[in-house]
Design goal:
- By secondary structure, the protein is α/β, with parallel strands linked by helices.
- The chain is built from 10 helices and 9 strands.
- The strands form 2 sheets. Strands 1-4-3-2-5-6 form a 6-stranded parallel β-sheet, with helices on both faces. It has a 3-stranded antiparallel β-sheet with strand order 7-8-9.
- Strand 2, helix 2 and strand 3 form a beta-alpha-beta unit.
- Bound molecules: adenosine monophosphate (AMP).
Amino acid sequence: MLVEPTIAGVRRWREAQPGSVGLVPTMGFLHAGHLSLVARARAENARLCASIFVNPTQFGPREDLSTYPRDMEGDLAQLERAGVDLVFTPDAVTMYPPDFDTWVEPGAIATLLEGAARPGHFRGVATVVLKLFTITRPDRAYFGQKDAQQLRVIQRMVADLDVPVAIVPLPIVREPDGLAMSSRNAYLSPAERQAALVLSRALALAQSRWQAGETDAAALRQAVCELIAAEPLAQTDYVSVADGEGLTELERAAPGALLSLAVRFGKTRLIDNVVLGESL
Ligand code: AMP
């Protein structure tokens, strides 16, 4: 496995690959969710590239950029075992030289939900992902449904800007007790880790109410909010029942609607979601 911190080095490698190339972009501190993307990408491509880059431009000024968990050595060992051919590990100056001054500005979809809570977040995401695409020129790129809105922002960008890459979405990988895997779970105290189980329980409750015939989106949002409010360590940021594509809020929850939420446990903000009609 090659570990390549420079853009020129990745380009040289890419030019030497005659077959298909898959890309798995990550911010590192890898877990089984990331590895599910790597496994799928490994199976579908002749060559496999992963990237590890904690992208500063997608963090707000009061967010956790400086404390974001990192484990480069452990990550590289996992990627090597998973059959990755090249890992792109740029530093911030490589991706954003001092004179950097061009951005990808996603539209309406990026103003909702995570975009409303984290101004500028999706501009940073879209910009870095487009750069990763032009540097690695993948045939396919793999993204988790865990970050459902990010996935849709990237799908929109690729369609709007005619980027020649197939976006492959993959389901959320959960801990055995239901908590969605996330690098940020490492921040949780034992009590917060226990309390965070309320997220998947709330999603499961809404899903079962919906399956039992409750299609009033406000009633579903309320049921989720009430369950979370009963957990003293949880502070709800938002609960949304939205159209699965454009992410606008719904009055009636149809199959394919996205029920998503963001909840704080102490200093840690977690997100999770379920598509109505699909398994959790
Ligand atoms: P991150 O390192 O958090 O930027 O995530 C890198 C990629 O892994 C993104 O496409 C995420 O959506 C995906 N991912 C993160 N957590 C999970 C999970 N629990 N299940 C599936 N994919 C995930």
